[in-house]
Amino acid sequence: MDNDTSSRLGVDAPRGVTCYQAKAVALRISGEPSLAGSVFLMGGLVPWVVSGRDSGRLHGDVDFSVRAGDMPAVRAWLAWPLPSSAWM
User: Fold this and answer.
1) Of the candidates 63, 52, 55, 53, which has an alpha carbon nearest to the alpha carbon of residue 18?
2) Where on the phi/psi map is residue 16: left (φ > 0), alpha (ψ -120 to 50), or beta?
3) How confident is residue 84, by pLDDT bands cut at 50, 70 and 90?
4) Which of 9, 55, 82, 83 has the smallest CB count inside 10 Å?
5) Which residues share a beta bridge with 49?
6) Residue 4: alpha-carbon gap to chain centroid
């Protein structure tokens, strides 16, 4: 939902998470041993992860690329219940 849409719907709160939180999720997934070589970080967060700097803005998603043949491993990992504390 873009800002114009959210304003029209009466939802004025910003959408997304801090750069720090988005990087934490990206690094958690990228560093997962069972996903090594299966998931690849992509998108607008990459420069901030590589540089170690903060973007100063909210991030609405964390983009990964996955080969179709690696999806069974990714689905198995996603199905495993993790406590919310494991993400941050």
Assistant:
1) 55
2) left
3) low
4) 83
5) none
6) 23
